[in-house]
Design a protein that fits this description.
17 helices, 3 domains, homodimer
């Protein structure tokens, strides 16, 4: 095809090219045969150009054009000409011109398509994943994969400018399961031993700080053998970052600068220079979640004080119990809600454990319906505390603190969507800070690390942390955006003695610690610097930037929710010889190998 | 440590900072206690600064300084001052100044070191790998890891400027073993099925071309379960590149531009705008290898014609057989070689299968020693063909073409080193082109793909390739540098019919092809563009750039030659529970779990 190699792309011709001869290479995107005249929309990564086969074209051109079908890969030589005034297509960047075909070469043919490239959204997702190579030809997927490249490049550009080194950590590591299950890789050379795939480079990046690299990052592939759950992938990508001799605010400044650079360069969006900070307690109290969507209000107010003075015995009982609370949420204009609508909100509340959703409306006559009768004497205070006015609905949940807040948080999320309070073009970042360091595991009756065991307690708690682990706040933070957790990070423990105390609180024996994290603890014996980091998820970031609701839409070759790649049918059976070489066999009788 | 956070690095202070107060954070690199006065060389990633504890320092500073040992991680507050004229250290960037300590805070202590950071090269490699976190503190390792970051960044910078997208391909894929063994990953959710780790993203990058991405790259982690062999790693990194609508020369231009950019930006070295091209046949004929080190000459000459007319029956017999040849190599000044030295050269030749190494010296009296007596009558021609003069040594190997050449190639390599002909500061790139497409596997009595089965035959061979597969040249190329193969690539087959003919020649049944590469062949049914690519190895590139002889020196956390990471003891035993969940067990009785 040497003489039919492209001299221009399908996205670059303008009226200033009129009169010049070009060769285009691409795919037949659309075909319109008007009898005497044929229009071919030729597509490549750069755009679409209209090619015309005219009545007076050479017979060889006309007969070749007649052979074309959608998605044939072709080379076309022709002359650029300005379209007649009435035919200019302002919606195409190349809409001012067309190419009059003088030679058409079919490079490869295409069979009938399983779905139209342009209309991918009509196809079932599993069919699209099976034919991912066609799905990826769509403008929508091309643009998202381009954006992903651009974001990753801008991340690297920024971190390089901030003197970070990108350092590759190994993929075949020792199994140190934590949080999720490890994927295992049998060693052939040492039968019975296994490598594991990293759930994150956590231990290695801390070791790099011990090694004095000062500022590390890596756009790293991470692996978790978790059960299929909605929008999880068994392999995902994170922007893994670690810094030495820093405190939390240094991490924040870096990340605010990085996201500012990325959003400016890729979407031409100006983010605020700093992101607001919300304590974990405030986030739960105001929004009923530790990843609030701040693109809309509907903040809760504390209703305990009023409820305690009301005649509503249910709330009074709750408030008499430890950690009992009552939270209120005002729905502007909600007085018009039907009983069915309120019931749907109650369903949302119940998914987080609330036993019910109490409500009252504010009408011209006063408080009305639901639990209004118990608050008649407190009307003025109810209106003052909730800020409610005529036409509003007041929703109330009474329960233990977290249950009450998270339940009302689910209601708030549903209202945000239902009432279309969300500006979909907005990106609202915030830091969630002051998380508890430990969580009580009531099933196993013990304290657990809320994040991971290497997180530094906030200094004011260190001395007495054993007395009341539940009260200890960690030097630990999340970055949230539009209701998603985008990143999690912390300042790490660099003092072996403090690390031992943490292990002790969560009931981790020195032997177990040595077995699991021995090499990190070993490193810490040789002068570990203070250090901390963070790890924004690249898939989720792209999903938010592209306005998608699934990370599969921003990954070139994702697995489906069952961990299967329908395109190449992975995982699959392997040759017995491969298993023999690995000295392993499968316990369960394997089903018959499939045809593929 | 908030009030002892660094305000400067250990690499940045100059005499213009004299008088200012700074806080430095770093490690105690050297300690010199001169009784009244103590010198601390404080190190961080950026350099080393001398800190002085003076006789009139506060008692708290002097006592803290007395506690210090090597590699303690400390924070020091002090005042910068110009060193007295006689004390300036011109070899340190900070050698004009020192910091007079006013406050010393020990952040963390260090135990006694297993080896001195500065003197890592004296330690056994396995000890260095076990304590890699200390090994990485050395200036040498810090610099190589920095260079690696810089090279990867410049590669991305260049490819981004050339409109390539970096696209992540999956790590958990279907097993399609080819070349080497796949690492396998058991699926927990589908017992009996396995994912594999990619030996390269080959099939996926070709699919991305079918998807129309036009220009793809990825700095990709690749995995091969190969037996320990010298300088191999079971996981390595390659700069994976693929382009559509291109021919070989487009790939060459891109790569020449990329390496030019990388060497200029990272080492400030100007590479030639284009690299020389040597056919496979010429490389073997002249240098006895397909990866010649061109930093020195010692090219072979064809000696068959003279040998055929000589009295040396051994060569005459060889030449009468198919593919028999005789090659000569002139060693300047080699007439002084002892019999032992020549014997060592013969040993080198024998490693590639030569049965012997014939030789003769050129003295003032004529040809002398070895096989000289058989060439007496041809002296003038011998001197003319070999270019030899008085004082030289002529080495000869007669055998089948490849054996003769490769054997003499081993001799040439040894001579290059022994005679110190190599300028170690030079980088000599070349393209090796016109490789054979097929190789005869005499063990299995069949043709095999010399590179891989997706390589395009050169056009002139396509029509008749079944007649003489051994004569077919592929559209296939290597990039070599300083005697190493740095990259391999090819133009790929995009025509399903041609692909079938290749499968047929190498005896690959349609069923086998479908089972192994079905998803790629499936993609090719929908209009695959002409495409080709290449994949430079990042580890080897760094090794060459850093002047090292092992890739382990340019990888932060390498495995040793047994595939083991001595730092974290991977691979290792895992919990029985993990294996039960995966429905696999190990056949061989596993030895007792080790303590770690």
């Amino acid at each position: 095809m040497e003489n039919m190699k492209r001299t221009a792309t399908c996205g670059g011709l303008t009226s200033s090219d009129a009169g010049s001869e070009v060769v285009l290479n691409g795919w037949v995107h659309r075909l319109r045969d008007h009898g005497e005249i044929t229009f071919i929309n030729l597509r490549d990564r750069y755009g679409v150009t209209q090619v015309v086969v005219e009545p007076d074209s050479a017979e060889s051109v006309r007969s070749r054009a007649a052979e074309l079908k959608l998605e044939y890969c072709v080379a076309i030589r022709g002359t650029v000409r300005r379209r007649p005034d009435g035919m200019v297509n302002a919606e195409m960047p190349t809409g001012e011109v067309e190419v009059v075909a003088q030679e058409i070469s079919i490079l490869t043919r295409s069979e009938t398509l399983p779905f139209m490239i342009d209309e991918r959204s009509d196809a079932r997702e599993d069919l699209r994943l099976q034919y991912r190579f066609l799905d990826l030809r769509s403008f929508s997927m091309q643009e998202k994969i381009r954006l992903r490249h651009d974001v990753a490049f801008r991340v690297r550009e920024y971190l390089n400018s901030q003197h970070f080194y990108e350092i590759e950590t190994p993929t075949l590591i020792r199994s140190t399961p934590e949080g999720a299950r490890d994927f295992l890789v049998p060693s052939r050379v040492q039968p019975g031993k296994f490598y594991a795939l990293p759930q994150s480079p956590q231990l290695y990046k801390q070791i790099l700080m011990v090694s004095g690299f000062d500022r590390y990052f890596q756009i790293a592939h991470c692996f978790r053998d978790e059960d299929a759950r909605g929008d999880r992938q068994i392999e995902h990508t994170q922007i893994d970052i670690e810094m030495s001799f820093v405190s939390r605010d240094d991490v924040f400044t870096l990340i605010e600068g990085m996201f500012g650079h990325v959003f400016k360069k890729t979407l031409d969006r100006q983010l605020p220079a700093t992101f607001e900070r919300i304590s974990y307690d405030d986030a739960v109290n105001l929004y009923g979640t530790d990843k609030p969507d701040l693109r809309f209000g509907l903040e809760f107010v504390d209703f305990a004080e009023i409820a305690a003075r009301s005649d509503f015995q249910v709330f009074k009982t709750i408030l008499s119990e430890p950690a009992g609370t009552v939270k209120a949420l005002r729905v502007p204009g909600g007085a018009e809600y039907s009983r069915k609508q309120i019931q749907e909100l109650e369903e949302a509340a119940k998914t987080f454990g609330a036993k019910g959703l109490a409500w009252m409306k504010v009408t011209a006559d006063g408080l009305d319906g639901g639990v209004a009768r118990f608050f008649g004497a407190l009307k003025a205070e109810v209106l003052s505390v909730t800020g409610a006015g005529v036409g509003d609905l007041i929703l109330l949940v009474g329960d233990k603190w977290q249950t009450a807040c998270f339940s009302l948080g689910a209601v708030r999320s549903k209202l945000g969507r239902d009432l279309k309070l969300i500006d979909q073009s907005e990106f609202r970042f915030a830091w969630i800070i002051d998380f508890p360091l430990f969580e009580w595991n009531s099933g196993e009756n013990k304290w657990e690390a809320a994040h991971h065991m290497f997180t530094m307690p906030q200094e004011r708690f260190i001395e007495t942390m054993e007395n009341d682990p539940g009260a200890v706040k960690g030097d630990l933070y999340d970055l949230v955006c539009n209701g998603y957790e985008l990143a999690s990070g912390s300042i790490r423990i660099n003092d072996p003695e403090l690390q031992k105390r943490i292990f002790n609180i969560v009931g981790f024996s020195p032997e177990e610690a040595e077995r699991r994290f021995g090499f990190l603890l070993n490193a810490f014996r040789f002068g570990a610097p203070p250090h901390g980091g963070i790890a924004p998820g690249l898939d989720r970031l792209l999903m938010i930037m592209a306005g998608e609701s699934s990370i599969r839409e921003v990954i070139a070759f994702p697995k489906n929710t069952a961990g299967v790649s329908p395109m190449d049918d992975a995982p699959n059976f392997v040759d017995d010889k491969q298993l023999r070489e690995l000295s392993i066999h499968v316990d369960a009788p394997a089903p018959e190998p499939s045809g593929r």
